[in-house]
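Hey, I was hoping to borrow your eyes for a little while. I've been staring at a protein lately and its backbone has me curious. You're getting the sequence in one-letter code plus the fold written as tokens. Would you mind checking whether the tokens look sensible for this chain? Here's the protein in full, and shout if anything looks odd to you:
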Amino acid sequence: ITTEDIAAAAVQLLLNDALQGKELTLTGPAAIDHHEAAKIITERAGKTVTYIPVSESDLIGAMTGGGAPESVANYLAALFRN
């Protein structure tokens, strides 16, 4: 999905009253998981990319350890949770 796709969807949401209050899932032409995304990036970049799952607590710890406020780390972790 590109930024242009997101912009086009946002325009439709703003202009189409039937879409007000609706929750939309924006995807590209195929739904892929993180492992498949890593495979595609590997193929295109010519460098090996491996997806390694990270627990929510490890994610928060890494962000706060890097200087992010705990409130920001918790907020971003919640985005990934949902």
Q: What stands out?
A: The chain has a mean pLDDT of 92. The helical segments are 3-15, 34-45, 56-65, 70-81. The chain has two domains: 1-30, 32-81. The domain at 32-81 is CATH 3.90.25.10 (UDP-galactose 4-epimerase; domain 1).
